[in-house]
Each structure stands twice: as C-alpha cells, then as structure tokens.
Amino acid sequence: MGIVVQKYGGSSVSDAAAVKRVAQRIVRTVQAGNKVCVVVSAMGDTTDELLDLAEQVTPTPPGRELDMLLTAGERISMAVLAMAIANLGHEARSFTGSQAGVITDSTHGRARIIDVTPGRISTALDEGAIAIVAGFQGVSQDTKDITTLGRGGSDTTAVALAAALHADVCEIYTDVDGVFTADPRIVSTAARLDTVTYEEMLELAASGAKVLMLRCVEYARRYDVPIHVRSSFSDRPGTTVTGSIEELSMEQAIISGVAHDRSEAKITVVGVPDVPGKAAAIFTEVARAGVNIDMIVQNVSAAQTGLTDVSFTLPKTDGSTAMTALTAVQGTIGFARLQYDDQIGKVSLVGAGMRSHPGVSATFFSALAEAGVNIDVISTSEIRISVVTHADKVDTAVRAVHTAFQLDADQVEAVVYGGTGR
Amino acid sequence: MGIVVQKYGGSSVSDAAAVKRVAQRIVRTVQAGNKVCVVVSAMGDTTDELLDLAEQVTPTPPGRELDMLLTAGERISMAVLAMAIANLGHEARSFTGSQAGVITDSTHGRARIIDVTPGRISTALDEGAIAIVAGFQGVSQDTKDITTLGRGGSDTTAVALAAALHADVCEIYTDVDGVFTADPRIVSTAARLDTVTYEEMLELAASGAKVLMLRCVEYARRYDVPIHVRSSFSDRPGTTVTGSIEELSMEQAIISGVAHDRSEAKITVVGVPDVPGKAAAIFTEVARAGVNIDMIVQNVSAAQTGLTDVSFTLPKTDGSTAMTALTAVQGTIGFARLQYDDQIGKVSLVGAGMRSHPGVSATFFSALAEAGVNIDVISTSEIRISVVTHADKVDTAVRAVHTAFQLDADQVEAVVYGGTGR
C-alpha cells in the first residue's frame, strides 16, 4: 500500500464548495488503494485578510506574532477539509505543522525546515485515517515558537513530509495543468511538459517560473521525491519532476522551455575606483543588508579614468534596502553615484540538452537580435542562458525564443507559469 | 510586584479599534507596576463565522476537528492583541492553550481542565513581557489533541491560570459593569454589588446569571482566586467575587439578588406506576443520554390509581434528546405519556443571610402571590429559593421579589445579567 502526499493550494480550497471537491478527490485516492497525507494552504484570501487585520493595529508587527496570526489560516482550512472528508464517511485527522513534526529554525516569516519527525502522521495513516497537515508552518527547535516558511512554504511542507514518510509521490495541486514550455498567457502555443528533471526545474524556478518554488524543488532533489504538478480542477495528468540530467538519453529534447521574470530591478554603481577590493566591498555591504543578488556584471574599465561601473540585479522588494545600504557607504567605497532601474525583465532558456549542443547560444542570441531585443546583462549556467532586457521587451523575447527552438505547439518540452503558492 | 490576570471577552475585542483600546488598558496595568497575563476570547463574531463555515461542509462535524477549527479564533485575537501592545512599545508574547500549559481531558467541545503548567508564561512574565493566552482551549493529556472548554471557557482559562500563577486577582472584563441585584434590562433600579461571596455567585450563576459561568466560579472558589468582574468600556470598579459566607458578618445584607433563567424546559412523565425504582429508572435513562437535569418534583400519588407524575427541568437544548431517550423505554418503565413544556422560566432569590432569617421564604412567596404569579415547581438550597413559573410571568416575578426585599436603587446587594462569554 503506497503513500501519496497531496498538496492543495489556496485557490484549490477557496470556499466550502471547493473544499468539498478536494475532499472527493482525496477519498478517490484512498479508494484507489493509497494511504494519503494531505498538505493544505489557507483558504482563498484568508492570508491577505489576516495581513490586513495586522496592518490595522500596527505597521510593524513582530515576526513571532505575525507567524502566530497567519498560521490560523491553515488551521481553518485543514479542519474544514477534515470535516468535509468525514462527511464522505472517511476518517481524517488534521495536524498543525508542530503536531506533524515540522521542525524549523527560528527565522520568523521565512523559517527553514531542519527536521521532520512525522510520528503522529505515520500513526494516523497506519490506523487507516487520512492525515491533513497545515502547510507553510512549523515549530522552532530552539524557542518552541510557531514559525512560517515564507513563500511557497506549503509546497516545501509537502515535499518534506513526502521525504520523511518515504511517499511514492508528492502531488502538488494548483490552478494550472503543469509545467509549460512558456507562460501560456504570453505564448498561446506553449506545450505542457510530461516530465522535467530536478535540475531543469530548479533553473526554471530560479528564472521566474512560478508553478513550483525553488526551495521545494531543492528539497525534492535532495531527497529524490518525485513531484507531480497538476490541476485540482481537472483529472488530466500534469508534469512529473523527477530524475537527473545525468540519466537523460541522447534522444531527450534539447530545450525544456523559456522562463521569464519581471520581479527584479537593477542597481548600477557608477564610477567605482578600478582597484582590487571595491567590488567585494559593494557586495559585502549588500549582503549585510540581507539582500540576495541574482546577476552581476562589471563593465570594462575606461582606461583614461581608472573608474568602472558595477551592475547587479535583485528582487524589486529589496530595492530600497540595498540603495539605502549602499548610499551609507558611498564615501568609504568612493563611487560616484547609484542608478536604480526597475523597468527590467529577465528571459531564460533552460534545457539539459544545451550541454552537448554548442549552437544553442548562437540560436538564442540571433532570435533576440532579429526580434529587436537589446541585451543588457547575460548570465549562464550549464543548462541555462539568461538575459536582462527592458521590461517592455519581455513578451517579444519569450515568443521569439520559443519559436526559434521549435517549442511551439506539438514540439516537446518545458516552462511554467501561474500559482501564487505559499 | 504582583501578578494580574485579565480576561477580555469577544465583545471587548470586536475589531481592530477595540483591540487597540484593550492594549492601552493592559499597558496601563503594567505601568502601574504589575506583571500582566491576559486571556483573550475570539474577536466579535469569529466563532459564529467559523461555525457557519463548518456547517457548509457537514451537518455533523467531528468534535476533534471542530475544536481545531474554533481555536483558530483565539489564535487570531491573541496575535493581533500582542501586535497592538508591541505598537505601544511593550513586548507581548502570545501563547496557545497548549503552549500555556492548559492540560485537559479528551472531551472535545467541553473539556475539563486537569492541570495547568504555565512554565512558559512564568518565563515570559519574569523576562518583563506581557503574556497573552488563548482562552477557551487546551490540549488533551492523553491524545495530545487540541480541545475546547465549552461555554464560558475563557473565564475558566483565566481563573485557572490565575490560580497556577498565584496571581493577586483575576479581572474578568465584559460589556457590563459587574454583578447586579437583578438584570437591569428587567429591573431598572437594580444595583451593582461591590462584593459577593463565591457561594452566592455559584448560586446566582446556576440560577441563570450569565456574567460568570458556573465552572469558572467553582474553580475560583476551589483555589481561592479573587475575581473582579468589570466593564472593558469604562474605568468604573465592578464586582469582586471573593470570600466565604462563613466569614460574613451579621451586618451583611440578607439577600444578594434575584436571578432568572429562561433557558430550561420541563418534562412531565405522566402515569408512572407508584412502586419503588420507577423514578430511579427514569433518571438513569436521562443520565445515560448525557442530559443534566436541574429540578425534580414528584406529585403525590392519587390513591385510587396507584399512579403518580414525575416532572423535571432540563436545558431546552437537551429537550429532544431526553424525550427520545424516555420514549424508547416507555414500555419498560410503564408510564402513560410524556409532556414537554418549553414555555417556563425560573426565578431565584440568592443570599447568604437567608440561612439565619426564617422569614425569607414567606416574604418571597407572598410577593409572588400578590403579583399573581403561579408557582409550578419549588427548589431550595441553604442560600437560595427557586421557583418555576410560566415564561410570560418571569419579568413580573423578578420585579416583585426585587421590590419585596428592598433591593431597589440604593438598597444593597447582588445579581447579574448579560455577557455571552465563552
């Protein structure tokens, strides 16, 4: 008897009627001969409503209390889902993250899972019950306080539980049919991928594909948990994330898909003295402010001036934090000024096959040039090429690249969109 | 430095503005030199909204899951209250019933507190923080599942914590000014009591006074915790519940007040064979159905028939359960038929002084007779006389008795009304 972990996002349990539909799907999975552990997010807009309530009493809620507040959302959805399953004649028991043994560090708002000790879940499954677990939450190992895992947290809860329970598969239910070769809202001919490797999915997620969060895929790869991403609104198969690029056969498609990301901004530090240690000083300062940077480019020094420019991209949400931190050390580092640009977009091509096909870069850049897309920054990995361009050019770039690699319609493999996931 | 436990009901934290007002009152208590532990109920209509949600998925929610659902209400209010306090520059830490060490039995929906181990609360208070505890909830000693304490549960949480923390006082904040000599909505001249003994408050609560629940007062008496019932909407002093009737001086008022209760119904078992064991059989059956009965009266047997009638009162909410249980054993017990009457009301006079004043009963019954109130059932204790009459006659009876004992306006001591408390 296999164990299946299913995760349902907020849009899949938006109201009582949706919860009842999900209950029926869970019961069908049980009737098919599986032990089922379900991870559930807060219903619909609950999290936003709770955040609104917090804002009404303070502009700066303490992280500990905000986590206590937000975890009420999953508490409600999991209890109601358990009731809906009971109403279908099956026993379901709901468990908080703490009860399910999701042990984290103490970083409120974006805690990391340290360990999962799902003793109570295993007992429930062994006793024939369906286990319903609150996603997105855990309990701090040190302080015993309630924590939340941050964006995409429920997906991570599901994968972590699947690993700890040695589940056969972790099914992530969302409002889209799986992972696509591009965002179907931009490329109408985008195709759904049947399978994609962990490495490719990691690159896609890091490049802006929203259907799965990066840390969830990282966790799945580390513990070798197959993820099946599919829609809770249909019975169609979705996309299975599994396997390594090392195992791919030569016949495998070269390219999985085209991802894009409009969530980043670019900061350019202008007039940096071109002497050793200046770049290190800049990025040390940014890191100290708690800002994660993505791409970095340093322009060639103008020989006459002995000055250079350093650009980097970062989440827009960290923009003002980074600008403030750098402004404070302008005198120490000795740069001329800062430029901030949030009208940028990143377009990435991902595919395991590009390792052994040297022509990929040429095709990629040719397609962008023919479409009139200017390239600002370039970054590559073994299985990915990314460029930064103007935000207005993102759609054009995605379509041009999608067509150039013959991904349109019935032509094979992968990227992503949609899903607000937590 | 004394410890004060404060409990705020749902009407005191109905919205963000109300929560902020409560936060200010808590901070003032801290500034006056106290360590403060706060017990809070769910905000306004939250509990009803959660019950509505449950009803949308099933008519019969499992108790375990209903408790999981409802406890989300206090989780929200306590976190928001802690945030509002933080916004005033004081540290507050919220704790679930489980985190606060409220250990109960496993009876979902009306669990009883077995033990309170408030280690984390004491630590928080010692570290200078304000502790905010979710009322109404605990954790089962046996199953480790979340439980709720049922009606008036938050008051009981507060008193239990006050006892465990050896607090100086347990302040119960509500939407009325304290305990009155009668319900001011019925008797406009009802007066607030300054103090009332535990025994009198127990009788008042058992007789329909809603400002404090019976079990909360029982708990306070057992652990000798003074309760101060007062309004969260004013700074006026309320009513202090403390001391034993044994300690009362001779000058103490004879009567505390007049309570009434319209929540009961009466069942009459007609034509019961007047032989030993029949009454026992009836009440055994009712008890087996889980129904608590209040007053019992057995009519004198009609000599000719060898049959008698047995009447008893019970909560209206248990009416159909009791009727069903008795109907099932009609053949075995051999009674003729059942009568059900939910148009009844109980009026009670409570006062420690009536022990030593034999004329109290006479005055009580004379006042009712003069007001034209028919008496159906009578029950007494050492410090209480209760009668059952028609529901329509309750207001008339309360006013007549209140006047007969000179309780109007500035004439001394105590009963109750209002507050939906949980």
UniProtKB/TrEMBL annotation, chains A, B:
It holds the Pfam family AA_kinase. Pathway: Amino-acid biosynthesis; L-methionine biosynthesis via de novo pathway; L-homoserine from L-aspartate: step 1/3; Amino-acid biosynthesis; L-threonine biosynthesis; L-threonine from L-aspartate: step 1/5; Amino-acid biosynthesis; L-lysine biosynthesis via DAP pathway; (S)-tetrahydrodipicolinate from L-aspartate: step 1/4. Keywords: Amino-acid biosynthesis, ATP-binding, Diaminopimelate biosynthesis, Kinase, Lysine biosynthesis, Nucleotide-binding, Transferase. The keyword Kinase applies. One of its GO terms (molecular function) is aspartate kinase activity. It catalyses: L-aspartate + ATP = 4-phospho-L-aspartate + ADP. It is an enzyme of class 2 (transferase). It comes from the Bacteria. Residues 267-343, 349-422 form the ACT domain. Its EC number is 2.7.2.4. PANTHER family: ASPARTATE KINASE, ASPARTOKINASE. Belongs to the aspartokinase family. Catalyzes the phosphorylation of the beta-carboxyl group of aspartic acid with ATP to yield 4-phospho-L-aspartate, which is involved in the branched biosynthetic pathway leading to the biosynthesis of amino acids lysine, threonine, isoleucine and methionine. This is Aspartokinase. It comes from Aquipuribacter hungaricus.
